[in-house]
Amino acid sequence: MAAQFGATSTTDDVLSGIDLSGKRVLVTGVSAGLGVETARTLAAHGATVVGAARDLDKAKQATEQVRKDAARSGGLELVELDLASLKSVRAAADKLVAAGKPFDVVICNAGVMATPKGKTADGFETQFGTNHLGHFVLVNRIRSLFRKGSRLVNLSSAGHRFSDVNLDDPNFERTPYDPFAAYGRSKTANILFAVEFDRRHKGEGVRATAVHPGGIQTELGRHMTPELIQQMMKSIEEANKAAKLPAFEWKTIPQGAATSVWAGFKAPAELVGGKYCEDCHVAEVIDNPAARGGVRPYALDAEHAKALWAKSEALVGEKF
Questions:
Q1: Catalytic residues, which ones?
Q2: pLDDT digit string (tens) for the chain, length 320 residues
Q3: Which residue range is the domain that position 19 belongs to?
């Protein structure tokens, strides 16, 4: 099964012949890009999708076609969620719990990338607070809605290779701020959260995994200047040439969302549980800073994952 799909597989390739009728899925970040495509393909295959977004008007416009398609098969409903505000996160979670409708898969897709130095409504560094802590509180608060056999899929990134989490200074209060170092920390945190969530809940039949969608041109890069993108591409090309690797190629949005869908619905739970996936397969652990693919060992370290969980609880003021 792992060899059946690859970097160029699309969401429709992965779900070909699969009927998701009766499945209920939560997808965060359905106002653009991967979130919209994920919602589209799941609803088209019969699932009921609950899409979460900060800007509901934008999400309604972005998912207009999704709703039309869903009317013939699955369904789509929207819920307001601002991951940069724990008040909003808790309100969204409380609303979902009060509704009492369980989920088969929760896909934590929303995120920000390479933002200028800033803080969330609760005073956390923007990227760590939004990408990790917002999802950490949301997922744990709706834990009772995870059916037996359900899965959590956290969208991480190859950017986790930029940096490990820093539990001593998560908000860059003593460390010079760097947008990509901060992004790397948050994406490493997404993987470690999946590792520890999986460890805690696999005995109950609930699994968790993290995925890298690939390099895709979406709104995620809106904080990056053309000069910065050009600089990044040059660096990637030079590294690939030195390593005698093929040239970098952007993925389409349907190709980018494929690994999320594969890890959530197609791959065996035992294969992906507690792992990091890319290009519709479980990634190799590679401890080489120059390597383009794979996952760094620190991102899968079980003790590290436990420490991040404890630190996250302390930061948000809740124990789960």
A1: 156, 183, 187
A2: 444 899 999 999 999 999 999 999 999 999 999 999 999 999 999 999 999 999 999 999 999 989 887 867 789 999 999 999 999 999 999 999 999 999 999 999 999 998 999 999 999 999 999 999 999 999 999 999 999 999 999 999 999 999 999 999 999 999 999 999 999 999 999 999 999 999 999 999 999 999 999 887 655 555 566 666 666 656 656 665 665 666 667 799 999 999 999 999 999 999 999 999 999 999 999 998 778 789 999 999 999 999 999 999 999 999 99
A3: 11-312
Task: Please give the Cα distance from 111 to 155 (Å, whole number).
Answer: 9
Residue 134 lies in a domain: yes
Q: Tell me how many domains the chain contains.
A: 1
CATH of the domain at 236: 3.40.50.720
Please spell the DSSP secondary structure of 139-196, one letter per residue.
Answer: HHHTGGGEEEEEEEEEE--GGGGG----SS-TT-SSSPP-HHHHHHHHHHHHHHHHHH
In a domain, 122, yes or no: yes
